[in-house]
Amino acid sequence: MLMSYSLSASATLWEKVKVPSNGVSNSIGSYSNGCLAGGETLPLEGEGYQVIRSQRGRYYGHSEMIQFLTELSSDAQKLRLGNMLVGDISMPRGGRFSSGHASHQTGLDADIWLKIADAPLEKESLVEVQPLPMVHIKDYKINNKNWSNKQALLIQLAATDDRVARIFVHPVIKEQLCKSEWQNRDWLRKVRPWWGHYYHFHVRLSCPDGSTNCKAQNPPPPGDGCGAELASWKPQKKVKQTAQNKKKETKPKKKKPVKIPPPQCLALIQ
Description:
Layout: H1 2-8, H2 12-16, E1 26-30, E2 33-37, E3 40-41, E4 45-46, E5 49-51, E6 60-61, H3 63-78, E7 84-86, E8 109-113, H4 123-127, E9 135-136, E10 141-142, H5 149-159, E11 164-169, H6 171-179, E12 191-193, E13 200-205, H7 228-231, H8 243-249, H9 263-268
Parallel strand pairs: 5-7, 11-12
Antiparallel strand pairs: 1-2, 3-6, 4-5, 8-13, 9-10, 11-13
């Protein structure tokens, strides 16, 4: 079974595991090719937060992530920002998903929805809660009907935490944050534009102390990322395709090489 996993990089083995391994939390490998030993469970409800879609079984994380989320929601409550909705973190032992995420493999990534509830949702609503889009995708502009200072302050609150390495948001949301007047703009460096994050933001923590086999990501470039770098994300007008361009597009795409997880990860699903 172990050799079969190594050759096929099957994600289903990780999804079949329903409980964390014993021991202290340890993030192993990289965010997109790793695993989680000694994962902890985020309680499905706590001060100022609720876990949504818990039936997916993706509310496990490194102890550092669990502490971060509970502290963030508590601080958000003190600022009267509303009830925080926590989406996917990791599976019980981390690892690769068959669909939905490339990262979230080491218990150090978490999705926090930008739909902020005024009061805790009913249990039935948590199962099928619908996202609240903050961006008009086709028009490439912020959805002023849904976006408010509460969303901006929640992202700022998360980004100013020293444990946070990066936060991913849709480029339009990053643009909106850049337009605001902040006394301190240093935290904006951590907020990185990335497609798809128009109804939630993705928090990524740095490798915690003690996780010696955790592979860190390079730090973001210097500056607040609000200039030419952000402008480069804006979609360009489509140019009419020539016969030569169409010919290039018909070339078969090269298959991505199979990522073999670290040996310590393979040992977790034997």
